[in-house]
Amino acid sequence: MKPLFQLILFVMFSFSLHAQCDTIASICNKKNFTADYISDGQQYRALLKADDIAEFRSTFYGGSTYRISACSGETDGNLIFSLYDNDRNLLFTNKDHQNSPYWDFKMESTVDGFVEAQLNELGSGCAVLLIGFKSN
Question: Which domains does the chain have, with CATH numbers?
Answer without folding.
Answer: 2-134 (2.60.120.380)
